[in-house]
Specification:
The complex is a heterotrimer of chains A (323), B (560) and C (311). Chain B has 560 residues and is of the alpha+beta class. In chain B, 28% of the residues lie in helices and 22% in strands. In chain B, helix 8 (307-315) packs antiparallel against helix 10 (356-365). Chain B starts with 6 loop residues before the first helix and ends with a helix. Chain C is built from 12 helices and no strands. In chain C, 52% of the residues are buried. The chains are: A mainly alpha (323), B alpha+beta (560), C mainly alpha (311). At the A-B interface, helix 2, helix 3, strand 2, helix 5 and helix 7 of A face strand 10, helix 6 and helix 12 of B.
């Protein structure tokens, strides 16, 4: 087991290195640089730009920059973000938790809603409810994430003015709230962005869950249970659901990259100060160290996600061993 | 359902608040307290004046720190007419005009309680000029030789030569920094220092907190030496989406939005809780021609080196219509690289008329004849070029789409090349473009015009004259104007220079947006200036009868 | 631009004709005939197919169907930002252009981009997967490891970065990039299929008879991976449509003044509260199209599944 873990970890590191290297060269070979993009006043004297290029080592040959960067990365130092004027690690430390919070809440919502919907559909298989829910979830499944976000923004924030539209907490009152009020305020701000993300993935999970349930319901042990006169409800909950949850767990690994990609748009539309928005902004400012770090973190998250999914699978289903 | 905006439809909305200046008298009553939430798009970079470049940092810095003095509403850069003291309460010119002595207000204190001294001024200028700091202001201070401190409250500026902008450079280019807090820091490390994230200044507001990418909070300095500010707390609330800022204004979550898109004027203006406040602007936009070949900068551009062609293209554009469409009644046509808010604005400049017929005639005469697909051709090359536009600017993208159709009308094919702002900047600096739709913030100091249109700025490797417009006559006129101590004479030389520029058509001057801010009705703004809308924020106030929940925070403290 | 539309149309026609011809040729018992029959009996999928065909017809006939030119600006002052009316069913945008006409032309751009990109994905993915699966061993391991690496970076992030950093990217390159970042799934499916086919009787027999690898690959293996590839193509188109819309919404995809559904949403995004129609209708067009492709993909999966028995 330990050897296996180590092997997986080694593979993970290899993949991250591949990704990091590819990203580094992709970025540094692109036209433009962080100094030009950030000191955007045309009045900035060339000497000042040259000064900063020198300070950040951008005037060195690419191979030297790569070597230096790789050495720094192995020591856990992501470098310095010129546009933010802070170490990259500090910038990320203030953004990553926000994204994880958003994704975590969305993930829980999505799985809860998705599994419930799938169950409901499977129970009413072939009936109008199944059909209607299927079409409904397909409708959401087929939506571009940013458009759903825009429409929710339009409806809930402009037309009905129910939810706050930006940020993670009330900018004025938050420091003066008590503990529970703070939690409430944060949840209140989470509603729109988390629901947008959750809606998109819930649809996919529901479709998958329904299929899995129907697959399992055809198997012998289910038929046996039914034949023994076990109630339909008990059959579904005890025999079918337990086994049909397995494939859904694998979705967890797949859902991560989807959520990460989706968070780019959702964070943008709702001004959520997380990694997605940070990355898009970093592209605009050519913030190479920050971008490299963001990509590396995304790939670590994805790899970790798929590993966790595999591990869960092995835990839940004794028949499966890792490899 | 809304109808398209007609010019007249906006005017009543704006007229309602045209009586802004009348408010001033009432501020004498003296009511302290209240919170103003300012909706902004971007986070600050560092709160350290020599190196910060972005708008939010500039606003926060402007309230935490002070200049020695600031110009009057006319922003006149010559001499010290109309200037009011800020950190300095008085000043005296040397007999040969090569020195200016500033007397620091002895009541001035840093926010940590230490008195402000003349040594802080000396420290500040040395810091700004230190190449290891990398301040973009440093080159503007080249004419200041040094600062001496005969006693703890007098700072004397020594100049290398006598010139009209002396006072402006000494008093207004730098925000004075506390020596005791910064002296121990390596200048090269300043940008990542604790100070840059937790500044100590001497201005009307002191720093409270900064949650990166979310909020920045300032609080009134009750012992501020020029009088306690009326608003107790200022909070910058950061949200990149413009949409969100509008919603927050309407919902009452935000109190101030610096710029409202023309399309939203009507909706925002009709909201019961919000008022619109127009104020003068310094922004203008233009389509810049590259007079050099982007592939080989030593060669002239095959198209735009030709002055007649540039003039013809200018005449093909209905600038008034574009302005009207993009800004409705809230924009005016730009006449050149300066705006109406400036003292050296020239409304008499001879504009090139909008005349597609003349444009066609000239193009025909130049040998560009309509080809098979409706595009003009000369010696087998089509009259076709690209317009570089930053994707992030909706206004410039819209303008580009309209220009494209107008060029098409006279047989010219203009392709839109949209790129993110970083790429546009980089390509502008390295002159890798055919034409570029640029938007600029004009400087109060008209002599800076050479930094964008002068010959030196064209020759420098990535100088500010990206289009490489070169006309010695223009440079000579501006140089003469800069050397004038009499404002009227300076003005007449500037105007002649502007006319030369306009005749040469190095760019198509497009628009000058009027800026309209949205403000919650309970907040009473005073005197929003073109260069810094927030300059007089310490006089803004919220009458106690109109206060809402967030104004009550720390009210007890505020009332003391 | 126009060339691309015609290429896309040609590709689609070839695909459909090929499928129909195959189904027609073969005798009644052939899996293709069965699949076609099954598809016809699946009402949802069949409706989706009709919607898709209709969309392609609209895209091809856009110049004749659209009431206005998609780029004409009749009056940038008086006719801009008009709400939906009889004259302009979807309203007009900031430059007085008719949103309905732009949506029709947008169908051309969005559909051809998606279709051509998926052709790239499917070809690369099939080739890569087939090679990995057929050669096997170390090569297979390395090839799959590379795919793991590629899949660990969110696709949309990669595309945004590349497109923004090298902006402006011409349309053919955009299509290529969309295609080259979308084949990983296909190649995994193909590899799995090839791995299982490799040991099947007919392949073993062919090898025993002295057939070379190329012959085996072309004759025995590729025809049998066709059905999963077709399913992933259909679902892939839906995905590419969404990705392209997202990129164009961020301003790095299809460039103005060409209309794609994504950049039309961008045109109205900042003014969603005042001018809701500019973003809403193109978004609906995307949802309908993507839904149709998803339904068809599901239907095809069921129809082409040899394990499923009729009745």
């Amino acid at each position: 087991m330990l050897r296996l873990l180590l092997r997986r970890a080694a593979h993970g590191v290899l993949i991250v290195w591949l990704v990091a290297t590819a990203t580094f060269f992709l970025l540094h070979l692109a036209p433009g640089d962080p100094i030009a993009a950030s000191l955007d006043s045309p009045l900035t004297p060339p000497a000042v730009r040259a000064h900063y290029r020198h300070v950040y080592g951008l005037d060195q040959p690419l191979s030297a920059q790569y070597g230096r960067w790789l050495a720094m990365m192995t020591h856990g130092d992501f470098g310095f973000s010129f546009p933010h004027r802070r170490p990259v690690s500090a910038v990320i430390a203030s953004a990553l938790p926000n994204t994880l919070l958003l994704m975590g809440v969305a993930l829980v919502l999505a799985f809860a809603a998705g599994i419930a919907l799938g169950l409901l559909q499977a129970r009413h298989r072939g009936r109008p409810l199944d059909w209607g829910l299927g079409l409904g979830s397909l409708f959401f499944y087929s939506m571009p994430d940013f458009w759903l976000a825009l429409m929710l923004l339009f409806l809930f924030a402009f037309v009905w003015r129910v939810f706050p539209v930006t940020g993670m907490f009330d900018p004025v009152m938050y420091p003066y709230y008590g503990f529970w009020q703070r939690i409430g305020d944060r949840l209140w701000h989470l509603v729109l962005p988390a629901c947008t993300l959750a809606l998109l993935s819930a649809a996919a999970i529901a479709r998958f869950q329904r299929a899995a349930l129907l697959d399992v319901s055809g198997e012998d042990f289910v038929l046996t249970a039914r034949a023994k006169g076990v109630s339909e409800r008990r059959v579904l909950m005890h025999h079918v659901l337990r086994n049909a949850l397995l494939p859904v767990i694998t979705l967890f690994g797949l859902a991560l990259p989807v959520l990460l990609g989706g968070s780019v748009f959702v964070e943008k539309v709702f001004s959520w100060p997380g990694m997605g928005l940070l990355t898009v902004e970093a592209i605009g400012t050519r913030d190479y160290p920050l971008l490299c770090a963001a990509v590396v973190i995304a790939s670590v998250l994805v790899i970790a996600g798929s590993f966790i999914a595999d591990a869960l699978y092995a835990v839940v289903d004794p028949r499966v061993r890792l490899e | 359902m809304r109808t398209p905006l007609a010019a007249s439809s906006l005017l009543p909305l704006l007229a309602v608040i045209a009586c802004q200046h009348g408010d001033r008298a009432r501020t004498q009553g003296g009511e302290y307290g209240g919170t103003m939430v300012i909706a902004v798009a971007g986070d600050a970079d560092a709160l350290l004046p020599p190196i910060t470049v972005n708008a939010t940092s500039y606003e926060v810095d402007g309230l935490v720190f002070e200049n020695l003095a600031r110009p009057g509403a006319t922003l006149d850069p010559i001499g010290d007419q109309g200037w009011t003291g800020e950190l300095a309460d008085s000043w005296k010119w040397g007999r040969d005009s090569l020195t200016i002595g500033f007397h620091i207000d002895t009541a001035a204190r840093w926010h940590d309680g230490v008195p402000v001294r003349s040594s802080d001024v000396k420290f500040t200028i040395d810091l700004y000029k230190n190449p290891r700091v990398g301040s973009y202001v440093a080159p503007l201070l080249a004419n200041i030789d040094s600062v001496s401190t005969p006693d703890s409250s007098i700072a004397v500026f020594w100049f290398k030569k006598r010139y009209p902008g002396q006072f402006y450079d000494a008093a207004y280019q730098m925000r004075i920094l506390p020596r005791h807090a910064l002296a121990g820091t390596d200048p090269a490390q300043l940008q990542s220092s604790l100070f840059a994230r937790h500044p100590i200044g001497s201005g009307p507001y002191h720093f409270v907190s900064w949650v990166p990418r979310q909020t920045i909070e300032l609080q009134a300095d009750t012992s501020y030496h020029r009088g306690r500010p009326r608003l107790e707390r200022l909070i910058w609330s950061i949200a990149p989406e413009y949409n969100a800022s509008v919603v927050r204004m309407l919902a009452g979550d935000a109190d101030f939005l610096e710029f409202v898109n023309p399309v939203d004027i009507q909706r925002v203006g009709h909201a019961p809780n919000v008022k619109l406040v127009p104020y003068p602007s310094m922004a203008y936009g233009y389509l810049l021609f590259n007079e050099r070949d982007p592939h080989d900068l030593s060669r002239p551009n095959a198209l735009f080196a030709d002055r007649s062609l540039r003039r013809a293209l200018t005449m093909a554009i209905d600038r008034r219509r574009v302005t009207k469409s993009v800004f409705d009644s809230l924009g005016s046509v730009a006449y050149g690289p300066y705006t109406r808010a400036l003292p050296y604005f020239d409304s008499t400049v001879a504009e090139l008329p909008f005349s597609p017929d003349s444009a066609r005639r000239v193009l025909d005469a130049l040998g560009w004849h309509i080809g098979a697909d409706g595009i003009r051709v000369k010696n087998g090359t089509p009259l076709r070029f690209s317009m570089l536009v930053p994707t992030s600017s909706a206004v410039r993208m819209q303008t580009a789409v309209m220009l494209q159709a107008m060029f098409q009308d006279v047989g010219v094919k203009a392709d839109i090349e949209s790129a993110d702002i970083g790429t546009v900047r980089q390509r502008s600096q390295s002159r890798q473009f055919q034409t570029l739709i640029e938007a600029m913030q004009s400087d109060g100091n008209p002599s800076t015009i050479l930094q964008n249109w002068g010959i030196d700025a064209a020759k420098a490797k990535d100088g500010g004259n990206a289009g490489s417009y070169e006309n010695p006559q223009f440079d000579a006129l501006v140089d003469t104007a800069i050397a004038q101590f009499d404002p009227a004479r300076a003005k007449s030389y500037y105007f002649r220079a502007y006319n030369v520029l306009n005749d040469d058509a190095p760019a198509i001057w497009l628009w000058e947006p009027a800026t309209v801010a949205a403000v919650q009705k309970r907040i009473h703004p005073v005197d929003m200036r073109a260069d810094e809308w927030f300059a007089n924020i310490s006089q803004w106030y919220i009458p106690s009868a109109e206060r809402i929940q967030r104004d009550q925070i720390r009210l007890a403290e505020a009332q003391r | 631009m126009h060339t691309l539309v015609w290429i896309a149309a040609a590709v689609l026609t070839t695909l459909i004709c090929g499928a129909v011809a195959r189904a027609g040729d073969a005798d009644t018992g052939s899996p293709w005939r069965i699949a076609l029959t099954r598809l016809r009996d699946n009402h949802a999928a069949f409706t989706a197919l009709c919607v898709i065909v209709a969309l392609f017809v609209v895209a091809v006939l856009a110049p004749w169907l659209a009431p206005y030119s998609p780029i004409a600006q009749p009056d940038i002052v008086r006719l801009k930002d008009l709400p939906p009316s009889l004259a302009h069913p979807f309203g007009t945008d900031f430059a007085s252009r008719d949103v309905f006409s732009r949506a029709l032309y947008g169908a051309r751009v969005s559909l051809s981009v998606a279709l051509l990109a998926i052709v790239v994905s499917a070809s690369v993915g099939t080739a890569y997967g087939a090679i990995a699966g057929y050669v096997g061993g170390r090569v297979d391991t390395i090839m799959m490891r590379l795919i793991d690496a590629a899949l660990s970076v969110p696709r949309i992030l990669l595309l945004i970065a590349v497109l923004a950093l090298w902006a402006p990217v011409p349309l053919p390159v955009l299509i290529l990039l969309l295609g080259l970042t979308g084949w990983f799934g296909v190649s995994r499916v193909v590899r799995a299929q090839v791995l299982s086919l490799r040991e099947r009787d007919m392949v073993v027999a062919a090898r025993a008879l002295g057939a070379n690898d190329r012959h085996i690959l072309w004759r025995h293996i590729l025809p049998n991976v066709l059905s999963p590839v077709i399913v992933s193509i259909t679902l892939g188109i839906a995905n590419v449509l969404i990705v392209e819309a997202g990129l164009s919404y961020l301003g790095v995809g299809v460039r103005p003044p060409a209309a794609s559904w994504g950049n039309m949403i961008l045109d109205g995004a900042d003014e969603i509260a005042s001018l809701w129609w500019i973003s809403t209708f193109p978004g609906l067009a995307i949802v309908i199209t993507v839904m149709a492709f998803n339904l068809l993909g599901d239907g095809l999966r069921d129809a082409l599944d040899p394990r499923q028995v009729d009745g």
